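Explain the record.
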Amino acid sequence: MIVSRRKTTINHAFAAAVAPSDDYDDQRVREAVAILGQDPDQDLLCAYCGALAQTWDHVFATVKDSRFSGHGHRLGNLLPCCKPCNSAKGNKDWRRFLAELGLPASTHQAAEHRIATYLSTLSLQDSVPDSSPEYERLLQIRTEVLGLLAEADELAKIIRERQSNNSFKPKPLRGSA
């Protein structure tokens, strides 16, 4: 079913709609990068492995159990990250992921200390919105959207099957059996 591939996208879209995010503040970003022991005037390095950073990792995922986790797109929840680490980490706990990298002990300890300091300095306590009527309606709409996608998949399956049953069937050529 195609809907199963869309479900994650839909859940992330609805979480992003309520997730808090920071306005860009160059000075604050420079200070955050410095806390990580990096030079804000140089290319950023992955906070986990030290490779050239190409993305920002959400330290704490914005979606957990198909719902908004309470963690947003805020500087205290974002770390510079290389694409391989960002993909491999996924929703894992950052300490567990760092341990799985198999870095030399001194490199691992230094990275863990930098990240822990960064998080304790910048982390903001985001939370899941209360059970307001607006938030409950948002969750209801999300459920309706997923239901509509499932219905659309069923209809598409029927259409595909009908098309394959009515598809062109060549007639045998003259003289062939």
Notes: The mean pLDDT is 89.
